[in-house]
């Protein structure tokens, strides 16, 4: 019951696997049939004249195949399928004229060098000779003889080939259309997902602003904490979607992060210090490039500390755009193990920053780390670009 539904896919799969061999076999059959028809037709013309049959028949077969291959594999794909009727007409006329010249030369050879005169060949040759080399355009009879002897057989081959080509073109066009529709759907899904992803952050940011307004009078310290958190979220939402950001905004983001950490660790013996020099507003940097160093300091230097700890951040930019960013943090006293060694070297976060620096600032940065029993220090030096509105200053 189910075999008829299974058979077509199996047949298609078989054809796809062996398509090259099938094509070769089909062309061999095409040649055999063409030469067979040529010899069969010539046998009525030449009767027992083997000289004519052995040379006229192969000539007709080769001219038929020539027209088929030139039209089916060169002219039609270039001009018919792309709908260039004028070019198709001119190129077809040229090929037809070439076929006529070849037939003219073949008849001349058979009439001149055939040891046994053949009435049909002689009559053919007299007609072609009388109308000259351009007889295919000036004589309807010569045109029909050329068409019936070679081109009509070629068109028997061309019709199924053109039909197959059009089916393939149509299927590819439909597949391309389906791919485009799917791509549009995917883009819409991505846009929808992006909008959905932005709903919660915007909602949280607005909520934080509302909370700040409500607690401003009641608890100034809590209000400042909410304000710093809102500034961090605002920076992530609105500033980091561009390749470069003003350095002063990036450093302000670092300061808000440090203020939050001061509030969070207010009841612990942790010293958090920040120093800044230069004119950062005149230069730009890749956004969120520095925060990993600061996060790393708190994660591996302050977390779990049982004695006084510190984090020192220094940022300096000179008038030539040379930027130095240093983060130093104390290390908790614990036995050196492979895990703590990896943490003191910066772990995965620092490796990711190195890859980003190599991609964005190749040959324009240095990143050095030093560590001992008491402290871990990372120093980034970077050649920055001037902001557009400050180029005229220099």
How many domain regions?
2
Find the CATH topology of the largest domain: Heat Shock Protein 90
In percent, how helical is the residue content?
A: 55-70%
Specify the CATH architecture of the largest domain.
2-Layer Sandwich
Major sheet size, sense and barrel closure: 5 strands, mixed
Give the overall form.
rod-shaped
Mean pLDDT: 82
CATH class of the largest domain: Alpha Beta
| Relevant CATH superfamily of the largest domain | Histidine kinase-like ATPase, C-terminal domain
What structural class do you assign from the helix and strand content?
alpha+beta
CA radius of gyration is 42 Å
The H/E string reads HHHHHHHHEHEEHEEHHEEE
Q: How would you classify the quaternary structure?
A: single chain
Amino-to-carboxy terminus distance: 85 Å
Q: For the largest beta sheet, what order do the strands appear in spatially?
A: 2-4-5-7-6
What's the number of extended β-strand segments? 8
The unreliable regions are 1-7, 338-345
- The number of helices is 12
Please characterize this protein's 3D structure:
The protein is an alpha+beta fold and 394 residues long. It folds into 2 domains: 9-184, no CATH class; 216-393, Histidine kinase-like ATPase, C-terminal domain (Heat Shock Protein 90), CATH 3.30.565. It is built from 12 helices and 8 strands. It has a 5-stranded mixed sheet with strand order 2-4-5-7-6, with helices on one face. Strands 1-3-8 form a 3-stranded antiparallel sheet. α2 packs across α3, α3 (50-80) packs antiparallel against α4 (85-113) and α8 runs antiparallel to α9. The radius of gyration is 42 Å and the shape is rod-shaped. The chain starts with a helix and ends in an 8-residue tail after the last strand.
């Amino acid at each position: 019951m189910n075999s008829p539904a299974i058979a077509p896919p199996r047949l298609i799969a078989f054809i796809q696997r062996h398509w090259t061999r099938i094509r070769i076999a089909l062309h061999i059959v095409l040649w055999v049939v063409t030469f067979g028809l040529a010899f069969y037709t010539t046998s009525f013309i030449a009767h027992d004249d083997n000289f004519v049959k052995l040379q006229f028949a192969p000539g007709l077969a080769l001219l038929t195949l020539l027209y088929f291959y030139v039209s089916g594999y060169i002219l039609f794909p270039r001009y018919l399928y792309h709908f260039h009727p004028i070019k198709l007409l001119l190129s077809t006329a040229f090929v037809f004229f070439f076929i006529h010249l070849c037939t003219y030369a073949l008849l001349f050879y058979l009439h001149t060098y055939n040891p046994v005169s053949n009435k049909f060949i002689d009559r053919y040759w007299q007609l072609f000779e009388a109308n000259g080399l351009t007889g295919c355009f000036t004589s309807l009879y010569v045109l029909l003889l050329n068409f019936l002897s070679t081109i009509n057989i070629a068109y028997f081959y061309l019709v199924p080939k053109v039909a197959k080509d059009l089916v393939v073109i149509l299927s590819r066009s439909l597949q391309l259309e389906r791919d485009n529709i799917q791509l549009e759907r995917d883009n819409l899904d991505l846009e929808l997902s992006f909008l959905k992803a932005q709903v919660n952050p915007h909602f949280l940011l607005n909520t934080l602003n509302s909370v700040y307004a409500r607690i401003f009078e009641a608890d100034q310290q809590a209000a400042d904490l909410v304000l710093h958190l809102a500034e961090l979220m605002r920076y992530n939402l609105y500033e980091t979607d561009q390749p470069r950001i003003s350095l002063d905004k990036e450093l302000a983001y670092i300061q808000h992060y440090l203020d939050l950490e001061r509030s969070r660790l207010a009841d612990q013996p942790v010293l958090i210090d920040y120093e800044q020099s230069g004119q950062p507003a005149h230069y730009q940097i890749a956004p969120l490039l520095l925060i990993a160093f600061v996060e790393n300091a708190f994660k591996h230097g302050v977390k779990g500390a049982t004695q006084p700890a510190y984090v020192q951040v220094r940022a300096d930019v000179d008038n030539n755009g040379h930027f130095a960013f240093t983060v130093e943090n104390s290390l908790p006293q614990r036995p050196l193990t492979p895990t703590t060694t990896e943490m003191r070297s910066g772990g995965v976060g620092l490796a990711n920053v190195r890859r980003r620096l190599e991609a964005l600032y190749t040959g324009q940065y240095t990143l050095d780390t030093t560590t001992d029993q008491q402290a871990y220090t990372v120093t980034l030096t970077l050649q920055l670009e001037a902001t557009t509105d400050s180029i005229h200053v220099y």
